[in-house]
Design a protein that fits this description.
Chain lengths: ~500, ~280
């Protein structure tokens, strides 16, 4: 009897389909985006790697790792069917800035970190981030459709700060029928997306397009408005029914070591703002200068530090160092950024911290004295505490030093609005609905959490939008002052 | 966009612009400044508000040509629109209950000192103004400053008007004559402010200077404007621009303001070629 031949079992594709990238040797001479994006065919094949898992109490899946809870299996199913329109629609129900998140989300610890396929031996997780990026780019290139707006509610909401948190609140509330006005201190929208994250990681045209979409929802943008200076919170409160504060963490931290004010030592914010917002990499076509150093050291190990170190190479540095006080395993930057930095030739001087700078007669930094560190017991954050190794100092020759050791919450709004309770770190105290101690005022993003991520800022923004909707449509009493005292004492 | 409603040249290389910026005009105070950007490719530069009109919704700035951006401001015409103006920034000058104030302004500092002179007078202080310039053509706002001063002293480097010499000579003479001066307010080139601060230190007279570090955002975000006051780092844009002159590390400010000399030269050369 002839045996029926079983249909050949489809071989599992264990690795993500590769993302084409600019050659490192090429890309360090330009500011164009590094990953080039995948084609439709590849993305559909990537979608086929997904197992379409069901969520359960016992089993965590991709969705559990996404701070805004995108229905990932559902959008991947659409991709698999080639229905990109359907796919992007699902994502946009949860995420107003998919082209941004698909590029800068630390997905390896979030959605992809929870992916069931990624847990299989020798397997990489499904490439959720790059699929999200593809869908958003596909939609933008074909032209974004304006969603139908519900009838206007006749209520006005002010949003302070046009970063990811503020943009999310604005778009969510506009879609719910509120009249939204954004007040932004800078002359352009986007917050860190525009002044911090470099063009080669997040092309600014994408941020413009996302902002245009939000504008098409009827959101008004007022630039050059430093709330607290140009207009006070109390004045806004008189004109608007609710206020959202999303002013971010824009205050640079310093180490307060000798020589830190020498020329050539910049906060990461200054270095990146000159380069990105003011486009100094196109000087003198653009007017703002940024001194180009041959030997650039960047202090810190997060995304901001990687951005500085990689930007320095593109501005013409011969050597670009990352100086980080812990080891490779503790680098807080996204793995992909560390990998890209290494590929481009950034040198990592780990377990090292600067102790002193000295300069030349023109006041420019020339040398940086460093100490060596070793790792001790884990501290409160769970990371090993770095300990100075005495007597092992050494000196590096440097022309430019970027300090990228973190940012504190932007102080202007809290300082000029005593009604707003803050923590001892300067963050605005919020409850579970992102309400603050000032009636009708909500806050989220880095100003409420301290410096975090784009998607967390957006997640907070979504919650705030919901909170604002509840506040303006239900007659709930505002929590008492004591509630916020209690939260801040935790 | 911010419309220029008035544009005049007060002297060669000194431009006055009155610009529509209603929100700023509402709350401007003496000693505060704006960040101005001419167009999309422009730099953001700080300029003191020389005057403001809340009713008309305008602010007035007076800029001395120092490099590309201030030269380009000179080419801006009435009716043109500027890309960005942010303000009012910085902490207003303290004017209450001072007594007798000597206001000392050198060069473009005269324009910067005018709103302070006015505010000092309006707050009920006795105001002694000392204004100095290279030559008499550069003595701007003399009439306006005189209107709000109890005394006006003028000097020029070339002797073309008033005292032949420096503003510090006049101040020193006043101090030597033991004239009662409670506070000195000095604004102008860094070196002038340093000379004044060094002078008043030995007489023990409190001295406020208005510093002009290089800025980018003007809102406390970047630290480009760091100055050292009494050994501590401060941000010129949010902690100043006024500081205790006896505590300022002028050497550091001088060095930090030379950070981009080479690039500034490139920008000016390119601009000159473009307008030629
Ligand atoms: C260089 C850099 C790289 C980063 N890389 C990543 C990454 O790869 N992935 C990631 O997830 N996260 C990254 N982050 C972090 C992420 O960008 C932030 O967590 C996120 O932008 C926070 O969003 P936000 O809306 O709270 O604030 P912001 O993005 O900081 O926006 C705040 C906005 O408010 C405005 N503002 C401030 N004060 C006032 C005022 N008084 N009145 C009016 N407006 C005001 C500011 O000008 C700004 O536009 C990076 C951050 C930096 C600096
Ligand atoms: C608070 C404050 C108020 C000021 N008010 C006035 C004013 O009312 N009128 C006036 O004429 N000038 C004023 N200045 C100085 C003015 O900002 C500079 O002359 C101007 O920025 C020069 O720009 P530029 O492109 O023309 O020249 P550049 O060629 O760029 O610079 C010439 C010199 O100006 C200084 N400078 C350059 N860029 C900046 C910058 N972004 N911020 C500050 N200084 C810079 C540097 O010392 C530089 O060497 C003020 C400065 C400050 C900080
Ligand atoms: S938003 Fe971020 S975490 Fe959520 S699915 Fe997209 S890439 Fe993953
Ligand atoms: S966990 Fe991974 S395999 Fe499962 S549905 Fe999510 S993306 Fe697909
Ligand atoms: S100009 Fe950026 S902090 Fe003052």
């Amino acid at each position: 009897m002839a045996e029926e031949t079983p249909a050949p079992k489809k071989e599992r594709v264990k690795k993500k389909y590769p993302m084409p990238e600019q050659d490192p040797k090429e890309r360090i001479h330009n500011f164009n985006e590094v990953p080039l994006g995948q084609d439709a065919e590849t993305v559909i094949k990537e979608a086929e790697r997904c197992l379409q898992c069901k969520r359960s109490e016992k089993r965590k899946i991709c969705v559990d790792g996404c701070p805004v809870g995108i229905d990932i299996p559902a959008f991947i199913r659409k991709v698999k069917e080639g229905d990109f329109e359907g796919g992007i629609k699902i994502i946009k129900q949860y995420n107003a800035l998919p082209a941004v998140c698909g590029r800068v989300c630390p997905y390896e610890n979030q959605c992809e970190g929870y992916c069931v396929v990624g847990k299989l031996k020798e397997n990489q997780p499904v490439g959720i981030g790059r699929m999200e990026r593809f869908l958003a780019d596909w939609e933008r290139e074909k032209g974004m459709a304006k969603p139908e707006l519900p009838p206007r509610k006749g209520k006005k909401v002010a949003v302070v700060g046009a970063g990811p948190a503020g943009l999310t609140v604005a778009s969510d509330l506009a879609k719910r029928g509120y009249d939204v006005t954004i007040f932004e201190a800078l002359h352009a929208p986007g917050g860190v997306l525009i002044y911090g994250i470099p063009e080669f990681r997040l092309p600014k045209a994408i941020v413009w397009a996302e902002v245009e979409y939000i504008r098409s929802l009827g959101v008004k943008l007022v630039f050059d408005a430093v709330v607290g200076k140009t207009i006070k919170m109390q004045e806004i409160a008189q004109e608007f029914d609710a206020i959202f504060v999303g002013t971010g963490a824009g205050l640079p931290k310093w180490m307060n070591i000798p020589g830190e004010n020498l020329n050539g030592i910049l906060s990461a914010n200054e270095f990146l703002t000159r380069t990105n917002l003011m486009k100094s990499y196109m000087f003198p076509e653009f007017d703002t200068p940024n001194r180009i150093g041959m030997r650039v050291a960047t202090i810190g190990g997060g995304n901001v530090a990687m951005d500085c170190a990689r930007t320095a190479l593109r501005l013409g540095a011969e050597e670009s160092w990352i100086i980080y006080r812990r080891s490779d395993a503790e680098l807080p930057a996204r793995r992909e950024e560390v990998h890209h930095a290494k590929e481009e030739g950034v040198k990592f001087q780990l377990l090292t911290a600067p102790v002193k700078y000295t300069g030349d007669e023109t006041g420019y930094v020339k040398k940086m004295e460093c100490c060596k560190m070793r790792l001790g017991e884990p501290d409160a954050s769970g990371r090993c505490r770095p300990i100075v190794c005495e007597g092992e100092n050494f000196v590096l020759d440097v022309d430019i030093v970027n300090i990228a050791i973190g940012q504190s919450p932007n102080p202007i709004v809290p300082q000029t609005t005593p009604e707003l309770k803050t923590t001892r770190w300067g963050t605005i105290v919020v409850d579970e609905w992102q309400r603050t101690s000032m009636k009708g005022v909500f806050a989220a993003g880095d100003i409420a959490t301290g410096d975090a991520t784009v998607i967390l800022a957006m997640g907070g923004g979504k919650k705030a939008a919901e909170g604002i909707d509840r506040y303006l449509s239900q007659n709930e009493p505002w929590p008492a002052k004591e509630v916020f005292d209690k939260i801040s004492s935790h | 966009m911010y419309k220029v409603v008035e544009k005049r040249d007060l002297a060669p290389g000194i431009h006055l612009l009155e610009i529509e910026a209603p929100m700023i005009a509402q709350r401007a105070k003496a000693g505060q400044f704006i960040m101005l950007m001419i167009d999309d490719k422009g730099e953001r530069i700080p300029l003191t508000m020389a005057d403001w009109n809340p009713k008309k919704g305008t602010v007035t700035i007076i800029a001395l040509e120092a490099g590309k951006t201030t030269m380009k401001l000179g080419t801006v015409k009435k009716g043109d629109e500027l890309r960005s103006i942010v303000g009012p920034l910085g902490i207003e000058t303290h004017t209450q209950d001072l007594g007798t104030v000597a206001c000392v302004g050198g060069g473009i500092g005269i324009a910067l000192m005018y709103p302070t002179v006015r505010a000092m007078k309006q707050a009920g202080n006795k105001v002694l103004s000392i204004m100095g310039a290279r030559t008499k053509d550069l003595l701007i706002l003399e009439k306006e400053i005189t209107e709000y001063s109890d005394e006006v002293h003028i000097c020029t480097d070339d002797g073309s008007k008033g005292h032949h010499g420096f503003v510090s000579d006049i101040l020193k003479k006043m101090l030597d004559e033991k004239r009662p001066i409670d506070v000195v307010y000095a604004v102008g080139p860094i070196i002038m402010m340093k000379v004044i601060a060094d002078l008043t230190r030995s007489y023990g007279v409190k001295t406020i200077v208005s510093l002009n570090p290089i800025m980018v955002d003007g809102t406390g975000m970047c630290g480009s404007c760091r100055v050292n006051i009494d050994g501590k780092t401060k941000f010129g844009c949010v902690d100043g621009p006024d500081f205790d002159g006896h505590k300022v590390d002028f050497q550091l400010l001088i060095a930090r303001n030379k950070r981009y000399l080479a690039e500034e030269k490139t920008a000016v050369e390119k601009f000159k070629k473009e307008v030629a």
